Amino acid sequence: MSQQVVTRFAPSPTGYLHIGGARTALFNWLFARGRGGKFLLRIEDTDRARSTPEATQAILDGMAWLGLDHDGDVISQAARADRHAEVAQQMLAAGTAFKCFASQDEIQAYRDTAKAEGRSTLYHSPWRDADPATYPDAPYVVRIKAPREGATVIRDAVQGDVTIRNDQLDDMVLLRSDGTPVYMLAVAVDDHDMGVTHVIRGDDHLNNAARQMMIYNAMDWPLPVYAHIPLIHGPDGKKLSKRHGALGVEEYQQMGYPASGMRNYLARLGWSHGDDEFFTDAQAQDWFDLDGIGKSAARFDFKKLDNLSGRHIAATDDAALLHELTEFRNAADLPALSTEKNDLLLAGMYCLKERARSFPELIDKAEFILASRPISPDEKAAKQLDSVSRGMLRELTPHLQNATWSREDLEATANAFAAEKETTFGKLAGPLRAALAGRSATPSVFDMMLVLGQDETLARLQDAADGGD
């Protein structure tokens, strides 16, 4: 029986959930979920000065919005410090680590001399093979015994084999002089203890893999599969930063992108499956593999995000879309809507969701539902309501009172009225839009009538017809 796949996302809680971190989480989630595996969440909160509960909550909120559910409890790295130290002590006992009593001044002097002589400044401690009988009664750090000969090969599922000469690896510190574990030790121990089979993370961690492998090898633990994914760049090819726009996931929620569109877009950022651009979660889980991840940095493209978001909004079930729209209004601090308005939104969703690329665009199209009588037309719409068009609306109203309020009947009534007046329905549409929505860009006039219902439609037309008097 093959081993169960276990992936993990391990952010540092020092701020919001970065868009790059969100993509890393998504890749880990897709890889695990598509293979019936586990996706774990570990908060790397060992930097006590910079880690905050608020930042941890921001990460959890960002993942919840993206729909990236994790298995089991959230693991705090800081809470496991005793276990990390225990592993360092095991390595000391096995002779794969040693106590180093060198002071900072001695280390700096060594590096200065090496630099002056044109040698590598990697520190070689004189305590590496010292007799314990010679140990002084003084503070010490615990260092790993790095291999001195040969090379370390990181067999990376994305980057291919990456070879690092062992003379480039130092006897890195595992425990500081106060007994606290360093990040490299904590990560390796946690990944092993959590049973992580695949470490999928940004390629800025590639060099860390060689150092973490030293701990795995010293402890005789099986290595995970490493997959280091390229970072995300802005449209200009430079590392993604504030000047390119939003960096935090919650900002995208506040801008009104649907979570499904965001997942689809982030999945396509650096990973591909043939020519497929638009796909569902089920397809992404089914298709996602490490083979499809490119080696070069992906470029963030807002036009593509807009396009995919629009397609996901159009494809989403109406009730689910209303639920997400409500969540967006909360996130964007917009006032809650009445049950009556929500019912109308649900009824009108079929004509609102086509070609809306974000929730603000959908809300804009829904202005005819969200507005209340009397409708105040904007400047452009007001120009459609002159005395002639108001008179036409006044004359049209009795015809509509007798309509059965089906689309066919409404269209037939409006066209017959236009013919009677020796004009076209196109000439009537502008005033009707102004009367029903107060603006000139709206869904179809007949869709608005159907959604608003006969009483509200007639009342709005009457208001507009009487407006100039």
Automatic annotation (TrEMBL):
<feature type="short sequence motif" description="'HIGH' region">
    <location>
        <begin position="11"/>
        <end position="21"/>
    </location>
</feature>
<protein>
    <recommendedName>
        <fullName>Glutamate--tRNA ligase</fullName>
        <ecNumber>6.1.1.17</ecNumber>
    </recommendedName>
</protein>
<dbReference type="InterPro" id="IPR000924">
    <property type="entry name" value="Glu/Gln-tRNA-synth"/>
</dbReference>
<feature type="binding site">
    <location>
        <position position="242"/>
    </location>
    <ligand>
        <name>ATP</name>
    </ligand>
</feature>
<dbReference type="GO" id="GO:0004818">
    <property type="term" value="F:glutamate-tRNA ligase activity"/>
</dbReference>
<dbReference type="InterPro" id="IPR049940">
    <property type="entry name" value="GluQ/Sye"/>
</dbReference>
<dbReference type="Pfam" id="PF00749">
    <property type="entry name" value="tRNA-synt_1c"/>
</dbReference>
<dbReference type="InterPro" id="IPR045462">
    <property type="entry name" value="aa-tRNA-synth_I_cd-bd"/>
</dbReference>
<dbReference type="Pfam" id="PF19269">
    <property type="entry name" value="Anticodon_2"/>
</dbReference>
<dbReference type="InterPro" id="IPR004527">
    <property type="entry name" value="Glu-tRNA-ligase_bac/mito"/>
</dbReference>
<dbReference type="InterPro" id="IPR001412">
    <property type="entry name" value="aa-tRNA-synth_I_CS"/>
</dbReference>
<dbReference type="InterPro" id="IPR020751">
    <property type="entry name" value="aa-tRNA-synth_I_codon-bd_sub2"/>
</dbReference>
<keyword id="KW-0436">Ligase</keyword>
<keyword id="KW-0963">Cytoplasm</keyword>
<feature type="short sequence motif" description="'KMSKS' region">
    <location>
        <begin position="239"/>
        <end position="243"/>
    </location>
</feature>
<dbReference type="InterPro" id="IPR014729">
    <property type="entry name" value="Rossmann-like_a/b/a_fold"/>
</dbReference>
<feature type="domain" description="Glutamyl/glutaminyl-tRNA synthetase class Ib catalytic">
    <location>
        <begin position="4"/>
        <end position="306"/>
    </location>
</feature>
<comment type="subunit">
    <text>Monomer.</text>
</comment>
<dbReference type="InterPro" id="IPR008925">
    <property type="entry name" value="aa_tRNA-synth_I_cd-bd_sf"/>
</dbReference>
<dbReference type="InterPro" id="IPR020058">
    <property type="entry name" value="Glu/Gln-tRNA-synth_Ib_cat-dom"/>
</dbReference>
<comment type="function">
    <text>Catalyzes the attachment of glutamate to tRNA(Glu) in a two-step reaction: glutamate is first activated by ATP to form Glu-AMP and then transferred to the acceptor end of tRNA(Glu).</text>
</comment>
<dbReference type="InterPro" id="IPR033910">
    <property type="entry name" value="GluRS_core"/>
</dbReference>
<keyword id="KW-0648">Protein biosynthesis</keyword>
<feature type="domain" description="Aminoacyl-tRNA synthetase class I anticodon-binding">
    <location>
        <begin position="338"/>
        <end position="464"/>
    </location>
</feature>
<keyword id="KW-0067">ATP-binding</keyword>
<keyword id="KW-0547">Nucleotide-binding</keyword>
<keyword id="KW-0030">Aminoacyl-tRNA synthetase</keyword>
<comment type="similarity">
    <text>Belongs to the class-I aminoacyl-tRNA synthetase family. Glutamate--tRNA ligase type 1 subfamily.</text>
</comment>
